[in-house]
Amino acid sequence: MDRNGASLKSSLPLKAWGIALLPISFFSLLFFLPVFHILKEAFDYSFSPIREIFTTTRFWSIAWFTLWQAFLSTVFSIAFAFPVIYLFAKYEFKGSRILRSLVTIPFVLPTVVVGSAFTAVFTRLNLDGGALNLRHTVWAILIAHTFFNASIAIRIISTFWEGLNENPENQSRILGVSRLGTFCQITLPRLRPAIFSAATTIFLFCLTSFGIILILGGPKNSTIETEIWRQAIWRGDISTASVFALLQLLFVILLSSILIQAEKKTTSDENLANKIKRKPRKRTIVFHFTYLFSLFGLPIFILLERSLNHGNSNIFAFFTGLTKQTNVIPITPISSLWNSLHFALLAALIAVLIGILTSIVVVRGSKILSTFLNVSASIPLGVSAVTIGFGIFLAFNGPLADLRSSQWMIPILHALLGVPFVVRSVVPSMRRIPTLFYENSKLLGVNPLKSWFNIDFKLSYRSFLVGGGFSFAISLGEFGATSFLPRNPDTLTAPLVIYRLLSTPGEELRGQAMALSVILAGITSLSIFLIELARKSD
Amino acid sequence: MRKYLSIPAITVLFAIFACGSSQPSTDRINESSVTLITHDSFAVSDGLFETFTSKTGITVEQLSLGDTGQLLSTSILTKSNPIGDVIFGIDNTFLGRALDAEIFVPYKSPLQSQIIKELDHEKSDYLTPVDYGHVCLNYWKSSFSDNFPPPKSIDDLLNPLYAKLLVVQNPETSSPGLAFLLATISHFGNNWENFWKTLEQNGVSVTSDWESSYYGDFIAGGGEKSIVVSYASSPIAELIYSNPPSQTPPTGIIEDSCFKQIEYAGILKNSQNIPEAEALLDFLLSQDFQEDIPLNMFMMPVLEKAVLPAAFSTYPTIPSHLNSITSAEIDANRNNWTEIWTETVLR
Does B298 reach chain A within 8 Å, measured CB to CB? Predict the structure, then answer.
């Protein structure tokens, strides 16, 4: 089998620059221009504070902590996801599609809601400051990161695994190698591209994690991200914040390039014969369900319990209360869900479009273009919300100034964070498609667009769906830089309403916040379920 | 081939759905409009700004921009080309930084003379007080009894009896956390570090944000702490949004622990709509707007003649003993104070 290489390019009459134009302008306008403006702002101040900051031990200890917590969080998220990945890749059973859509729930839950659920779990585990005290420790951060990000690993890796045929594994078993041995020596190496791909996304996500570090890590743990926020927002010290932002940018470019290279190097053409999935035994099901519950269940269970009204004859009173407007929020909580859905759909469509174009260039384009777009499509995930948010305020000046408060900016900026998910799940699947398919297609005189549709699209459309689903979820969850955009009260989204409900005391408001979180989670899994329907045929 | 049909079908459905719900992003029917930018806690009754529009013909567009720190930092960054015309929500802990950045034009509303005197002591030509409130220690009433009365004063917290009962917020990341630190500095003077040293030894719990302490550690959210840094108006919010409905609030305040927060509004320098902005600022001080504040934002009106809603006159929201520090002093010492606090409590 031969790798994607020079021969492929000549066999593909793709006008790579034409395809690349849209993604390149997207990243330039929404990412490079804003980041450039922020760095320019930073260097307009004098250079001396930069030297001062670089020489403090606090600076380096924060940088070091940021890196190792993100590294361990990534390892944990992937390792703990593996039993679930195995279940989804190998077995087909009643309700497997529902289960698949349920695992995305943690991903969109607002940090402040999950944070208090985790605090409740930790308080119960904490035997009065005893040995099990997890609160405000790095363990709390690692556990929460695993909870939030395991679903990324589950979705990306299991989808990739499904597409692999089992011949090498079967041969290995026939030759007498044990199940575990076969997994470690045959399957794991074949999964490497997807593992690196998931790792890139999770790692960048953990580098810029904000709420989890602040809420669960407590006041003693700071990372580059929380430090940028504290300096820029809280202290108004833009020059210190920019030094951190610059360092973060360098880290992110360097690390994502390494991970992306690793993903590329480990990819080989695969024989993509359809695999027959087995029905699991009862024992397997019981094991995996117990495992899934212990991984995701407890905080979600606490959330469900808190959304129910125990002091009232109507146990669903908090849910029915969502249709009424309270004084502290300008719209009814229910209508915020509509806003969320509306933005999420637009964001997912934009992200899938840009993501597919980017992936084509990454896989089939010239080396320079491919590397450039591959890195560009990942780093927005790893760059601080403050950098992008403030950068947009600075960059969009003059005729572009009205865009800053335009409601279109919301789904577009959501899509900027959704594109990495599309690209990271599509690229490994598209790259493994044998070159032979293209050569044959060309020999037969099929036009390039049609052969792209018949080959790339049909063979990797499942990963488009995974990426689209994540973009949708990213938007529903209101991640990162989007919190910096000016909001019109009529277009508040559900997570923002949840935060507002929780910022005034009162049992009624708190109950409604929990009920709205439950509905948000429900809508997320329903949407992912609908997207899953598209893969019914397998 | 059938299996691929569902994808275009879903895409089309999505597209229809997305188009069907697209809203007009700007609906400026009127020639003159004014944009008010606020922090996220800003809220008014439905239709309040319509009374302003019907009187003046000016429509109000509202934009919220995160917390107070984010609101101010964004306004400073965009000062050559501001996002709005009037800014509301700069409090006295941010006042110094806001004035230093020179982002406002001076304006004195004719209604400014009707503001409660003590609130207008900062005498700024650029910023006008619009509402005020107090950050106070709140306690959970049913955790205490006749045999174990709630602390009467902030000094009582030094008593080991109240050890481990208190949760506060980090003044480096939270606005009420900073206000409470300032209250202790005002109350204890040079001795404030010792107060915090004792609290630390007594097992004070610290969280990064108000939500985590009130709904994580404090009893209200299922936690175990019975004293928390919150607002003087929190017991009233607890009462209004109680569930099941209740006649008395479950929490009370410790009066000498309070610190006054005043929220200001100002007109941004490069605004293209100065006359409209001035009219809006006058409206913010009008009786209509001022009387709308308490039940929406749980803050107090600054207008002397504004009538308070019943719940606000029943329960004390203006503590008898007040701690205060001038905004100039806050601005000059803030970073130094929070660094000392961090060294004392967190390290």
Answer: yes
The span from the CA of B309 to the CA of B231, in Å, is: 17
**Distances from the Cα of A373 to the Cαs of A27, A370, A466, in angstroms?**
9, 5, 20
Residue type, A347: A
- Determine the angle formed by the axes of helices A238-265 and A33-44, rounding to 10 degrees: 140
pLDDT value for B252: 94
Q: Judge whether B13 is closer than 8 Å to chain A, CB to CB.
A: no
pTM for the whole structure: 0.88
Average pLDDT over residues A183-209: 91
pLDDT at A451: 76
Assigned CATH class of B134-260+319-346: alpha beta
Burial B168-197 (b: 16+ CB within 10 A, else e): bbbbbbbbbbbbbbbbbbbbbeeebbebbe
Q: Residue B303 pairs with which residues in a beta bridge?
A: B115
Which residues on A lie below 8 Å from B272 (Cβ)?
Answer: none
Place of tokens 């008010």: B36
CATH of B29-132+261-314, one of 3.90.1570.10, 3.40.190.10, 3.20.20.10, 3.10.20.310: 3.40.190.10
Q: Answer yes or no: are the C-beta atoms of A34 and B77 closer than 8 Å.
A: no
Strand-pair category, B86-91 with B33-38: parallel
How does residue B37 score in pLDDT terms, banded at 50, 70 and 90? very high
| Number of alpha carbons in the 13 Å side-chain half-sphere of residue A106 | 31
Omega before B106 cis (within 30°)? no
H or E segment to which residue B251 belongs? strand B251-268
Helix (H, G, I), strand (E, B) or coil at B89: strand
> Quick one: how far is CA B207 from the chain centroid?
18
Q: What is the pLDDT of residue A38?
A: 84
- Mutual orientation of helices A409-431 and A238-265 as an angle, nearest 10°? 30
Q: Which residue of B has its CA nearest to A504?
A: B237
Nearest to A338 among B21, B97, B210 (CB): B21
> How far is residue A169's CA from residue A164's CA, in Å, rounded to a whole number?
10
Domain boundaries, chain B: 29-132+261-314, 134-260+319-346
Regarding an ipTM greater than 0.90, the answer is no
Domains of chain A in start order, with CATH, are 16-305+318-533 (1.10.3720.10)
A84 token code pair: 């679930």
Q: Which of B3, B207, B243 sits opposite A507 (nearest CB)?
A: B243
CA distance B283 to chain A (A): 19
Q: What pLDDT does A494 receive?
A: 92
Residue-by-residue DSSP string for A308-321: S-TTSSSTTHHHHG
**Do the first three CATH levels of B29-132+261-314 and B134-260+319-346 match, i.e. the same topology?**
yes
What are the tokens at B272?
């293209």
Structure tokens at A147: 């909870």
- Which helix (H) or strand (E) segment holds residue B131: the answer is strand B127-140
pLDDT in tens, A363-376: 888 888 888 999 99
Among left, alpha and beta (phi > 0; psi -120 to 50; other), residue B298 is left
Q: Do B216 and A119 touch (CB under 8 A)?
A: yes
The confidence score (pLDDT) of residue A538 equals 45
